[in-house]
Design brief:
The chain is an alpha/beta fold and about 300 residues long. The protein is built from twelve helices and nine strands. It has two domains: about 60 residues, no CATH class; about 210 residues, 3-Layer(aba) Sandwich (Rossmann fold).
C-alpha cells in the first residue's frame, strides 16, 4: 500500500496571500494540544475517501498562523483522530436519537464542531474550555439559544451549576482528548461531581492505557509540547469499579476500524498480545453514572 499523500504546508501562508492577516496562535501546555485534532481533521478531510469530513476544521486551519510542520507526517495520529471523531459522532447521534431533547456537555471542546455535525434542532449543547481557548473559539463559533460556550476549567465545578437540568431531561457528557492529561484523583473527582449533580448522566470519554502514558513522549505531535500524560486505564471497567452507581455501557477500540487505514499494524494485530495492547491504548468508552432519578421503577 502506498503512503498517504497530503499537501504538507502551513495553511496560514496561503491565507495571507489572499490578503487576510493570519491569526497568530499563542497557546501553551495542554491548551496547545487542541491544534493536534484540529489539524488531523483538516488533513483527513482532504482525502478522497475520508473517514470523517470536517469542513469547519479546514476553514479554521486556513486562517491560523502556526507552524504545523512540527506535526510532520503523523499518519497514525491522523487515523487515530479520524476514527475517534467518527466513533464519538456516531455514539452522540445514537444518544440524541434516543433522547431528542437531551442536554449535552462537551468538556475540553477546543475548536471542535461536533454540535454542527449532530444537531437535531432540539438538543441543548454546551461547549466548555479554558478562558484562553474560548477566546480563540469565539472567533469561529457563535453562541446561540441551542449552543452555549462556557469559559472555565473542567475542574472548576461551578460549570455544573451553569448547565442546570430541566425535569426529566437526559444528560450526556463528552470528554475527548482531555482525561489523559489529568491525574487519577482529578478524573475520579470529575465523575463523582457529575453523578452527584446529574444522576443517570452518560459519559463518552477517550482514554489511553497506562503503558501508553509511560511512552507518551514518543507520540510525535506531543514532542514539542509541555503536556505530559498522567492517567490511563486498560478498560472502562476500571472506572466502573470506583463506585457501585457506575455502569459499563460500551467500549470501542480504534484499531478495529477501518483496518486498511492502519497499514502494517493490521498485520501486527494478528499477534494477540499486541492487538490487546493496541485496543487498550486507543479507545472510546461509554459509562452511565447512576440511575436517572425520574426513571420509572
Amino acid at each position: 500500500m502506498k503512503p498517504d499523500k497530503h499537501p504538507f504546508r502551513t495553511p496560514s501562508r496561503c491565507d495571507s496571500r489572499r490578503g487576510r492577516a493570519p491569526l497568530r496562535i499563542e497557546l501553551a501546555g495542554v491548551p496547545e494540544t487542541l491544534l493536534i485534532p484540529l489539524y488531523m481533521r483538516f488533513l483527513e478531510t482532504q482525502r478522497p475517501n475520508p473517514i470523517i469530513r470536517d469542513d469547519k476544521a479546514r476553514e479554521i486551519i486556513e486562517t491560523l498562523d502556526y507552524d504545523f510542520t512540527r506535526f510532520k507526517r503523523p499518519w497514525i495520529t491522523q487515523v487515530d483522530i479520524a476514527v475517534r471523531t467518527e466513533i464519538l459522532d456516531e455514539a452522540t447521534s445514537q444518544f440524541i436519537a434516543r433522547h431528542p431533547q437531551a442536554t449535552i456537555v462537551n468538556l475540553g471542546a477546543g475548536l471542535d464542531g461536533r454540535f454542527l455535525r449532530v444537531n437535531n434542532g432540539r438538543i441543548t449543547w454546551f461547549d466548555l474550555d479554558l478562558p484562553e481557548v474560548v477566546e480563540l473559539r469565539r472567533k469561529f463559533y457563535q453562541d446561540s439559544e441551542q449552543n452555549r460556550t462556557i469559559a472555565k476549567s473542567i475542574l472548576d465545578w461551578s460549570w455544573l451549576d451553569e448547565i442546570g437540568r430541566p425535569l426529566g431531561q437526559e444528560v450526556l457528557i463528552i470528554v475527548e482528548g482531555v482525561l489523559p492529561y489529568f491525574t487519577e484523583d482529578q478524573v475520579r473527582t470529575l465523575f463523582a461531581q457529575i453523578v452527584s449533580r446529574f444522576p443517570g448522566a452518560e459519559v463518552l470519554f477517550q482514554s489511553t492505557s497506562p503503558e501508553c502514558v509511560k511512552k507518551h513522549r514518543k507520540i510525535r505531535p506531543l514532542k514539542h509540547m509541555d503536556a505530559p500524560f498522567r492517567w490511563g486505564i486498560n478498560s472502562a471497567q476500571e472506572v466502573v469499579s470506583w463506585d457501585c452507581r457506575y455502569e459499563y455501557v460500551a467500549e470501542w477500540a480504534f484499531i478495529d476500524r477501518p483496518l486498511e487505514r492502519w497499514r502494517g499494524l493490521r498485520y501486527v494485530c494478528l499477534l494477540t498480545p499486541v492487538y490487546r495492547r493496541l485496543r487498550e491504548a486507543m479507545k472510546i468508552s461509554h459509562v452511565r453514572l447512576g440511575s436517572h432519578p425520574f426513571a420509572s421503577v
